[in-house]
Amino acid sequence: MKNFFCYFIFFFLFSINISANTEIVINENQWPCKLHHLEPPKQSDYWQGKNVALDSEWKNDSDVRELVNFITNHANSIVQGKDAIDKFSKKNNEEKVKSKKFDLVFSGIFQEMTLYLSLARHGVFQFITRIELLEKELIKQNLKDQKLEKRGIGRSKKGWILEIADDSEEEAEFQCNRMDFLEKKAKALTKQLINNL
Q1: Which end of the chain is least crowded, N or C, by CB within 10 Å?
Q2: Is there a domain that residue 14 lies in?
Q3: H or E element that contains 3
Q4: Which domain holds residue 93?
Q5: Dist CA 27 CA 166 (whole Å)
Q6: pTM tops 0.85, yes or no
């Protein structure tokens, strides 16, 4: 146990030392995505005037859970999600029950999409941080403004750094597009809920 504690202290201090030496601050002008993606979404962004309890109660209703899992699944399109909401709406005719179930569905959509958005946002931060670290490495080598030269065999370290930085920029852009799509999907599904009330 004593050895474990010593290892833990060593790695803790080591990680603090590394993070202190490589502090990266991302400014708004460096953020490649839409600025509103820097902040987590609010319920009012999707459904004006709605204030649903964001808890796991939606997971307790098997019909709601099945619907939310289907419509928020990446493999299913927005159109498939809308169709599923329409079918779900037709199964629930009583207004109070329908309203309660739709609140649960909205809670599920909002929670799942917020999770996916936060993962994509975290991915953008990682890629920006990687670019910043690579730029610092290039500055050390006085090569910040050099272009990548393609070589067949035996690429230099500088070439690899530039290629990794370029790949990171592309990945960050992909995550930005992903956030835009997730936001669009969440809004479209919520609008379909509202239309079915």
Answers
A1: N
A2: no
A3: helix 2-21
A4: 27-196
A5: 20
A6: no
Q: Which residues contact 101 (CB under 8 A, 6 or more apart)?
A: 61, 63, 64, 88, 92
The Cα–Cα gap between 81 and 66 comes to 12
Instruction: Give the separation between CA 69 and CA 50, rounded to whole angstroms.
Output: 22
Q: Total structural domains in the chain?
A: 1
Q: Is residue 116 part of a domain?
A: yes
The answer to whether 43 and 111 are in contact (CB under 8 A) is no
Mean pLDDT of residues grouped by 10 in the chain (197 residues)? 55 50 62 85 87 87 94 93 94 86 92 92 88 79 56 60 79 90 93 90
Q: Give yes or no for a contact between 69 and 177, defined as CB atoms under 8 angstroms apart.
A: no
Residue 1 is assigned to a structural domain of this protein:
no
Does any domain span residue 62? yes
7 token code pair = 């290892």
Alpha carbons 102 and 173: distance in angstroms, whole number? 34
CB 43 within 8 A of CB 52: yes
Helices first, then strands: H and E counts in the chain: 6, 0
Give the residue carrying structure tokens 């379909």.
Answer: 192
CA atoms within 13 A on the CB side of 122: 6
